[in-house]
Each structure stands twice: as C-alpha cells, then as structure tokens.
Amino acid sequence: MTGFGQSQVTRDGVTVSTDIQCLNSRFFDLTVRMPRIMQKWEIQVRQAAQEALTRGKVNLTAVVSAEVETSTAIRLNRARLRQYQELFRQIQDELALPEGPSFSHYTAINDIVEVEEVNRDDLLRELLMETLTKALAGMQEMQQAEGANLAADLMMRLALVQEENETIERLAGEHRTGDLERYRSRIQELLDGVPVDEGRLLQEAAILADKRDITEECTRIKSHLELFRSYINDDDNTGKRLGFLLQEIGREVNTIGAKTDHIDISHAAVRIKNELEKIREQVQNIL
Fold it and tell me: Which candidate, 143, 171, 168, 162, places its Cα nearest to that of 279?
C-alpha cells in the first residue's frame, strides 16, 4: 500500500528532516539516503522501518542542516578569573599603583577563557530517530486512510458479485422446470422414433438436468463472499487469504459458465468475472 511521511525537528541550532515514501511491492525493499555523519546509525534506521512496515518499496531520506561532527563551546573560567582579580589587587597594593587593571589586562590572559569541543552525535542520533518515528507514524496514518477507502470499495464490489449470484440462482430456478421438458424432448429427437419407456425417458432427462444444476456452486459462492467480508479487517495475512478466496469464487463461476446453456446466466457469470478481476487488482495492495 502506498504512503508518505515527513517530519522535521530543530533543537540546539540543528535541524534534521526525514522523508519516507512507500510504493506497492510484494517484498520489503528499503533504500536509505543519509549524510555521511548519520550513516553510522543506518542499521538502527533500517530496523525501525522494517518493524513498522511489512512490505513495500520504501525510499527513506534524512537531511541534517549542518555537516558538523563537533562544535565548540566558549566558557568563562570564573574561579580563575577571581584568582587573577585578587592577584592584580595585590600587585596594585604592593606597587602603590593609582589604577587597577583594565579590561584589556584580563582579555590578554589566555587561560580564563576555555574553548571546549562538544560532540553532537547524541543530539543528531536523537533528532534522527525522533523524525524517523514521526515520519513512519504519518505514513501509517495515510495508509490506514487509504485502507479504509479500499475496504469500502471492496465491500461495494462484493455486493455487486452477490447481486449477480442471486440473479443466477433466480434464473436457474425459473429455468429448472422448462429444462426438464427440454431435455426430455431433446432425448426423444436423438432416439429418432425408437420406442422407449416414458419413465426411463424422464429419468434420463432428470439425470441430465441434475448435471446442469448450479445450486451448489451458487451456495459456495455465497459462503466465500461471507468469509471474504470477515477477512477484510483482519490483520493476519489478509491479502493471501483474500487472494485464495477470489481463486475459489472464480472456480465456482467458471463451473457455472461450463454447466449452463442459458445465455442470461452466462452473461451474469461474465459480469461476476469482471468484478472479480477488479477486486483482485485491489487485493494486491493489501498485506
């Protein structure tokens, strides 16, 4: 099932964006594109994506605002500053200087200002996984909405198949009495005047009518349709189950088409086949 998710998070001057696109596929196929600085976490990204997605051709792209593995922080060493301040006061008293030290005296001292390298790995990893989680959630929400629309379409088409199946049942019932007489007349024509017992003639006509009977096929189609509806909202191998039921319904419809010699029933069977093909295309999008 197709889907798209996107997320962007900014923290401490660093922005990470993650996009995920998913297209229909029988298998799970993930392509990951990330900056070099993030590639150390690709295994974790793949694991998170595969836990959220069962199958699909997935393209995942992560972008960071700046490619900096480390940044610097400038800090004032207040304790050392106070030490220098006391030292300057003692020098002023000792030498009886009229003025104390100026700002430039302090800035000339190198060790009261410290430059510290700050590793951004923890922040980048946190932002990456946060945006990944949000993007996956957004895509799943989109897939659920699409799934609801798909389920509605399937239910509508199942109703059409059921309606055609009921039409076949009704037509078969209307033709049943006439079929028996038609088969009896046809057998007599084939015998070409050869005398035959009337009871035996009726028996052969009944046997032929029974071979042409499609009641069992219509009943099995109804049963398959009921089971199909119950599986639509199931989470356990739904696509495979629905595909199997479509196969079984198709076989029953083919049998009906082979048994009947009534054009109206044949046309109804063809209409069912058309709907089954449309349903089959939709079921391929279901996991």
Answer: 162
pLDDT tens across 260-281, in order? 888 998 999 999 999 999 999 8
Integer-rounded Cα Rg, in Å, for the chain is 40
pTM, two decimal places: 0.62
pLDDT (tens digit per residue) in 205-228: 555 656 677 888 999 999 999 999
* CA neighbours closer than 13 Å in the CB half-sphere of residue 257: 14
In whole angstroms, what separates CA 152 from the centre of its chain? 16
For the segment(s) 3-67+121-139, the CATH number from 2.20.25, 3.30.230, 2.60.40, 3.40.50 is 3.30.230
Q: Indicate the domain borders of the chain.
A: 3-67+121-139, 70-119, 142-283
Q: Which residue reads 């700046």 in tokens? A: 66
What percent of the chain is helix, strand and coil (3-state, nearest 5)? 65, 15, 20
